Structure formats: C-alpha cells, structure tokens
Amino acid sequence: MFNNVMGLILADNKKISLGELSGPRALSAIPFGGRYRIIDFMLSNMVNSGVKNVGVLTYNKYKSLMDHLGTGAAWSLDRKNDGLHILPPYVNSEATNINGDEELAGVLDFLRTSRATYIIVAASNVVLNTTFDDMIRSHENSGADLTVMYNRDATKYGSPSYILDVDDDGFVKDMLYNPQKSSSNKCSLGIICLRRDMLVDIISKQMSHGLTHFGIHSMVKMFDEIKVHAYEYKGTALRINSVQGYFNSSMSLLDESVRNDLFWSGKPIYTKVKDEAPTLYFDNADVSDSIISDGCRIYGNVENSIIFRSVTISKNTTLKNCVVMQDVHISENCHLENVILDKNSFVRPGVRLVGHHDYPVVIGKGAGI
Amino acid sequence: MAKADVVAMILAGGQGARLGVLTKRIAKPAVPFGSRYRIIDFPLSNCVNSGIEIVGVLSQYQPLALNTYVGNGHPWDLDRNNAGAYILPPYQRAGESSWYKGTANAIFQNKDFIDDCNPEYVVVLSGDHIYKMDYSAMLKSHIEKGADATVAVYEVPWEEAPRFGILNTEGDDAIVEFEEKPKQPKSNLASMGVYIFTWSTLRDALIRDEADPESSNDFGKNIIPMLLNDGKKLFAYRFSGYWKDVGTISSLWETNMDILDKPEDINLVDRSWKIFSRNPVKPSQFIGTEGKVTNSALTDGCRIYGDVKHSVLSESVVVEKGAVVKDCVLLPGVVVKEGAHIERCIVDFGTIIGKDVKAGPSIEGEGPYTNHKICSEGICVFERSLKIKDGAVIPANSMIDSDIEVSDEENVIESTFRV
C-alpha cells in the first residue's frame, strides 16, 4: 500500500474505436462484465494499491464518464486531500494553442499540485485486477527511469498493439507498433510508472516542442534517452481494442479461471451503485453459463451470455452468446445469437437476429428493432 | 443542526427474540431480507423517499452490525451537512443512566436530540416491517386534521385482529380507544407501529410518562391512552399498500416468499420509490452449465451450479453441483455443498451446508434441535458461521444452534467459525 503514489488514467484512446459502442461515450466508459464500466478496473486497481489521488484524463464525450464517476465516492475517492480529479481538456495560461485540445497543459497542473513521488499512468483499454506494489518495487530495484507493464498472450487481440523488444536485463531496446511479424510476444499493457518529477520534465519538454497529445507509448518510445524497464504481468489481462476484442473479452468472463482472477482474488472491483432490486427468475426461466446482474426479470432462455442490470428477457425468447447492457427489453418469441445490445435498446416480439462469433451484431444505444 | 419540520426516529433496539438464532448476534432490523436488503432498509428508504432528512436510529441490543450497516447513512443519501442518519444508543448521564426501558422511554432519553432539531413533528417508526409508505402523505393528513397524533393503521382480517394492537375509531377515523390484542375486537384497524406526533404534545406526554413509575413506557400501552385521556386529537391514518410484520420465523419466511409469488405487491423494481441498501461490492451472479434457477430472487456474487427453486438468495451464496435448494432463504455467503437437499430452510450468514445434508419438512421426527417455539410450518433455521456435517439429516422445525448441548452422534455441527 502506498501513500506516495498518484495515478493517472487516460479515459479514451483516439486510435481505438468500438463502433456504435464508443460512439456515445469514452472508451473507458463502455459497460463491461455485467455491472461495470471498463474504467472501474483500473480505478479499483489504483485504490486497492493505496493510491488516493487519481486523475482521469478525457478529451471529449466525457458526459457518461462523469455521470459514472460522480464524486468518486464509490471508489472511496471523495476525499478532502487528493481524491478523484477529472481532467477535461482546457485552456490555461500555459496553453500554446487554443483549440481545446491541450491535454498536456491540463495534466501538468494536476501533476504539479501533488506531493507524490511516483505516478502510475494507465490506458483504459485493458481489464485486469492487480495492485501496483510489485511493479513499483521492481521499478525501484531496476534503477529504471520508467517501467512499462506487459504480458505475453497478446497476439490474438488485434490492433493497436505495442510489441516490446527487451534485453537480457529487462530493459526495452525497441518497440514495434502493430508489427506484421514480430520477434517478441511481449505486448505492452499500456501501464507505466515513473517518478512524478520526471513526468513533469518530460511533459514540459514535449510541450516546448509543440506537442499537445498525451501518449503512454510516446514515453515508452523514449528508450534511447531514458532507461525503460519492462515488467511482466502474469495474471489475466483482457484487451479491448475493437468490437471483436470487446466481445471476446466479455465471453472470456464465462471461463471460471478468468472470473476468479478478475473478481474473486480478494481485491474488490468497485463501481457505481445502482440500488436495483434483486433479479427474479420466473417459472420457465432457463439460464446456463451466464453472468446475470441485479434488477433483471428473466422469463426466457439465456445461454452463454452476459446480462447487465435491469434487463427483461421475455417468455419463449432465447439468447445465446449475447452481451445485453443495462435497461434493455427483449420481447417474447425472439432468438438472438452473437448480438451485443447497447443500453436502453428494445427488441420487439418475434425478432430473429444472428451474428457470427467472429463478427457480432451490435445494436446501438436506445435503438429499437 | 439545522431546524427541520420533521424528524424520524426508528426504534431499532429490540432483540427480536422470536427470530431465534438469527438475532443472536445482530439486532432484528439488521437481519437480511429479500435477497439484497436488510429489514431497516425499508423504513430508512421510506424516510428518504418521503423527504425526511433527519433520521435517528435507536439501537441497543447487539448494535455492532446495525451501527456498521447504517454507518454514515451514505447508501440512503443520509450523509447530509446538517442532517442525516444518527445512531442513538442509550448513554451515560451525570447522576443516572439506564437502558431504553420501552419504546416511549427510548424517545424520552433522546429528547435533547429532537429538541436540537426543533421540529414541529416527529415520526416514530419501528424497524421490523416490510412496506413502502409515503410518510409525507400521512403528515399532510396529520396537519390537515389538526391532530396531536396520527397512527397508521392497516385493515387486517377480523379473525387476525386479536393478534394486533387495535384502534377503535369513530366518525372521520378519530381514535377513541386503543386495545392491545383484544379477545373480542371492536375494530379491525391494526396499528402499524407508525406514528406521527406534534412534538410539543409528545414531549409533554413523554415527560409525564417518565414520572410514572407504574408505566411500562410504551407507545401503544401508555402514551396513546394518556393522550386519549387528555382529550387530545388522535386520528387513524389508513394504509392499504403492502405491509408485513417480519417478527417471527414463519412471517419472515412468508414475506421473503412474497417477493417471488407476488412481486407486484411490494414492487421492488419501482424506480420512483427505490429501496436503498448498502452495496456488498461483489460481481454479478453466475449460473453454471448445470445450474438451474426458477422462481427465485438472486443478487450480486451468487454462484449457482445446482438446482435452485422458489428461493431467495442473498449476496455471494454458492450452490454446488447436484445440490437442491427449494423454498429456502439463504443469507449472505451461505454455501450449499454438492448433493445437499434442503427445503424450507433459513440459513444465516456464511453457514456451510455439508455434502448430502438433508433438511426440511419432508423429514419427519424430532431431534435435539427441534424447536416448536421458534420454528413452525416445517421451517428449519441455521445459525450463522457453522459447518454442518456432511450427510446430516435434519428434521422439520429444527433450529440449529451451537449453544445447544447434544451428544456427539446427534450433533450436526462439525465446527463453528467467524465469517
């Protein structure tokens, strides 16, 4: 547990689009795993590591993110000292251009007001449950200027991937972006730690070169100038880089070992509380191999699916390999397979909709079919 | 504290002895109910939904779980700057101190708290009923009628009236008499244990009641008759929604089953009147390949690999492969091992039902755990934090209590542990 470490989460990623799912919201605000948003995992990891000062950097589409995070109370980050700081792009006296795209300037202020020694900077397209104690210790022991977390099972999760070439002492000597052919299976998880004052220096330097965008891998890429160490994460890590990646990651939660690693390791994943009623399973409900959240009413068949809060699944309806987000209503006599239904969507009676497991159908937020 | 028009006081200090082992370690209002709630969530949520922002929770018996649960009131939005939830235990004073002697004495001992809020009206609530009620509508009636006290009443079937505190009324529901459990009831209007008083009237009555050494310091028995004698204006306020007392094992079980059999009655999904509760921070439920769940209510953290029928499961309950759970109420963290078959059981926090255990009304006979005083209708109750021996056979109406001394061969408890 730390009291000298702060955190920064990049809530969105301009290189990653999840089509209709990321249309209305930042990447990290996409619902995941029945009752979470993607950002809940990284926020909880930070809180579970004892980090009490967390910035969340956004650049647009941050309404749903702000609704979700609120004061940070759900993560015990509603604090007088430190706490949760949402960092939208803004123009301040240090801004050099005024197009509302000044991420770096906004971050700089946040960094300067902290007294923390170290900072963990994390992307939000990865779902894992860990604490950062071991990574920080490894960072201190290696004498590195910056440490980047990676894991080894990455190749199947698609673009963008940053493959690390690491020397015998664990220092990064090359980094390849979406390589066609790779000599290494060490794929960055987009989580770095470094000294706070070093990050301030790096950002100041980048700004004086006219840069505005904050990028984790643009710092890892500085391996020629600073010592960049690689730290291997061996637990479960799910990458969400595309609709396909989202679908695969969701479905992998039906695997017991993945669920145990992400949810039952003793480190809770916090999320916004909704106070829904318990879920009711009625007479003919037939549910197997599925994750079901509170507030649902289930009359039909659900197989191999992830059901979020307050979903109604009516009689004689079958769902197979589906991800159904909050407040969706599915009427009677429907058959849905390999479908992702975004929040508040509505399926009228008798609809038959079958996607392919390599190409799920996505029904956008609030749509009616 | 800021001045408030109305302050609510929840009487949450009672033991609830009729719930047997369920209230051995915690006060009745903290007993889990309906999969994701505690009993006290209902009056607390009713207060908040009615716009009452100052809520005193009078705790006395086994207060730890209740105090921890209510905490700073955050889950009910009762963590306000100048208002909120206040835990009010009995305390020591210069010269004298005493436990809460009765419901009226509990309020009397906290009159300084109420005086500090300086309200016009005080709502007095009991912490052992399941219902959704708008106290502001009742207050409106209290004000319109110029009442000194208003008592919420529920029309019960005539044959059940002798079990309740009955209010006899005339005209526009003016109360003329209160009778505790009358053998020949003159009315079927049962007191719900929900009172609104004009504070100045109640304050005066409490002081006089306290001075009477003969009084049992009880609202129904003493305060209401005193106010009637004084010629004060008391009115009954008729409530017709869902209202259930959960003071006994059988009523607790039945009320849980109502969520499954008559979900529209209590209507927990109504977003305009949510029942708030402290969240356990657990992942969603998981139903495995061979799991089967029908006619049941489940919440976060449950993992079901067996057969669950017509049951209410609290957070993080595990039902293993081949186990059958029917007509049961399983409280947080209960584990039902492989091959166990339990029916009509209420199992408290974290107890592990061993492999192939059989329990329920279909098992005849009596054993050392048989308890007809607490258990009825074949319902079995299990104390918290027990490991029940594999293969144990437990007949109907048993209360599994680690304090009961039994021979080794009859003992169904393998061990006890703390959750």
Please outline what is shown here.
Chain A is 20% helix and 27% strand. With 369 residues, chain A is α/β, with parallel strands linked by helices. In chain A, α3 runs antiparallel to α5 (196-208).
Q: Layout of SSEs?
A:
The complex is a heterodimer of chains A (369) and B (419).
Chain A: E1 5-10, E2 31-32, E3 36-37, H1 38-48, E4 53-57, H2 63-69, E5 83-87, H3 103-112, E6 118-122, E7 126-127, H4 133-142, E8 146-151, E9 162-166, E10 172-177, E11 187-195, H5 196-208, H6 216-220, E12 228-232, E13 238-239, H7 243-252, H8 256-263, E14 279-281, E15 286-288, E16 290-292, E17 297-298, E18 301-303, E19 306-307, E20 312-313, E21 318-320, E22 323-324, E23 329-330, E24 335-337, E25 339-341, E26 346-347, E27 352-354, E28 361-363
Parallel strand pairs in A: 1-4, 1-6, 4-5, 8-12, 14-17, 15-18, 16-19, 17-20, 18-21, 19-22, 20-23, 21-24, 22-25, 23-26, 24-27, 25-28
Antiparallel strand pairs in A: 2-3, 6-11, 7-13, 8-11, 9-10
Chain B: E1 6-11, E2 32-33, E3 37-38, H1 41-49, E4 54-58, H2 63-70, E5 84-88, H3 103-108, H4 111-117, E6 121-126, E7 129-131, H5 135-144, E8 149-155, E9 165-170, E10 174-180, E11 189-198, H6 199-211, H7 219-229, E12 234-238, E13 243-245, H8 249-261, H9 263-266, E14 285-287, E15 292-294, E16 296-298, E17 303-304, E18 307-309, E19 312-313, E20 318-319, E21 324-326, E22 329-330, E23 335-336, E24 341-343, E25 345-347, E26 352-353, E27 358-359, E28 380-382, E29 386-388, E30 393-394, E31 399-400, E32 413-416
Parallel strand pairs in B: 1-4, 1-6, 4-5, 8-12, 14-17, 15-18, 17-20, 18-21, 19-22, 20-23, 21-24, 22-25, 23-26, 24-27, 25-28, 26-29, 27-30, 28-31
Antiparallel strand pairs in B: 2-3, 6-11, 7-13, 8-11, 9-10, 29-32
